[in-house]
């Protein structure tokens, strides 16, 4: 698909923003490609990895060239498409992993934060430069405040300063930081761990985790109690417990 490479690697689906000459800026075609991939996911896919072409930039956000040449209505519709994509990623039944190597800027930060996990290379940098362009990261801010403290969020948005991967991990922008020298191997190993987990438990667990984050504690605990009882009735739960006692790898059926 134009601006997006979609590649299947066993139980993992890789989505690569393929606009290296434009610093992997988000285009309408690329966003629609991501939306189609995560919304119509094959049940056999156990993880989705989103990354950028090349080694220098994960995603630089909106394509400012297209933004400059578009009407106000077109700009508004582009924001609506980005919002739809971010929500679809969060609703995707399989875990979605952002593979961030190099720069991650503006809307690229929002794309990464919408994912369940952010695996950063030690050379990664995160930044929100919008205020310096007469804009504001409105859409990104709704995700940002759910991952970092309000003080860290406002600092990033007001100054536009970039933070390195170590800082990103410390303040909550990144899940893991891997050395650039072993980055590809470390990401491959990590994705293998994710796809090896029990598929039914992961799908139910991801949805329950997202719901609990938006629910007051008492009803959240009640809902988690119900979900625990539900997952305990699955074939995968029986298989996982049997495999534990028999000291062998589990054979998941996804039921």
Secondary-structure topology with pairs:
Blueprint (H helix, E strand, L loop, with lengths): L3 E6 L2 E6 L10 H12 L7 E6 L4 E3 L4 H5 L3 H20 L4 E5 L2 E3 L1 H8 L2 E5 L3 E3 L10 H7 L5 H10 L3 E2 H7 L4 E3 L4 H14 L2 H15 L3 H15 L3 H12 L9
Parallel strand pairs: 2-3, 3-5, 4-6, 5-7, 6-8, 7-10
Antiparallel strand pairs: 1-2, 8-9
What report would you give on this structure?
The mean pLDDT is 94. The chain is an alpha/beta fold and 255 residues long. It is 49% helix and 16% strand. It has helices at residues 28-39, 64-68, 72-91, 107-114, 138-144, 150-159, 165-171, 183-196, 199-213, 217-231, 235-246; strands spanning 4-9, 12-17, 47-52, 57-59, 96-100, 103-105, 117-121, 125-127, 163-164, 176-178. Strand 1 and strand 2 (12-17) form a beta hairpin.
The H-and-E topology, N to C, reads as EEHEEHHEEHEEHHEHEHHHH
Tell me the overall shape. globular
- Order of strands across the widest beta sheet? 1-2-3-5-7-10
- What is the architecture of the largest domain at the second tier of CATH? Alpha-Beta Complex
Structural class given helices, strands, pairing? alpha/beta
Strand content: 15-25%
What is the alpha-carbon Rg in Å? 19 Å
- pLDDT average, as an integer? 94
Could you give the count of β-strands? Answer: 10
Share of helical residues: 40-55%
End-to-end distance:
33 Å
């Amino acid at each position: 698909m134009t601006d997006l490479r979609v590649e299947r690697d066993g139980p993992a689906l890789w989505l690569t923003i393929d606009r290296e000459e434009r610093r992997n800026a988000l285009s309408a075609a690329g966003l629609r490609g991501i939306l189609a991939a995560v919304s119509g996911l094959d049940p056999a896919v156990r993880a989705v990895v989103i990354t950028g072409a090349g080694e220098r930039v994960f995603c630089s956000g909106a394509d400012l060239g297209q933004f400059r040449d578009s009407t106000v209505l077109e700009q508004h519709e582009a924001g609506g498409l980005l919002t739809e994509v971010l929500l679809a990623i969060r609703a995707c039944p399989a875990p979605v992993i952002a593979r961030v190597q190099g720069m991650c800027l503006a809307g690229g930060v929002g794309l990464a934060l919408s994912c369940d996990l952010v695996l950063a290379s030690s050379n990664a940098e995160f930044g929100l430069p919008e205020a310096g362009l007469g804009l504001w990261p409105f859409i990104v801010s709704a995700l940002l405040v759910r991952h970092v403290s309000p003080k860290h969020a406002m600092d990033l948005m007001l100054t536009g300063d970039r933070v390195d991967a170590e800082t990103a991990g410390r303040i909550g922008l990144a899940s893991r930081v891997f050395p650039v020298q072993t980055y590809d191997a470390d990401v491959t190993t990590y994705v293998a761990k994710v796809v090896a987990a029990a598929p039914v438990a992961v799908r139910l667990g991801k949805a329950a985790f997202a719901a609990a984050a938006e629910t007051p504690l008492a009803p959240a605990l009640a809902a988690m109690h119900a979900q625990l009882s539900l997952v305990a009735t699955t074939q995968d739960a029986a298989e996982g417990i049997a495999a534990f006692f028999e000291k062998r790898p589990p054979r998941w059926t996804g039921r």
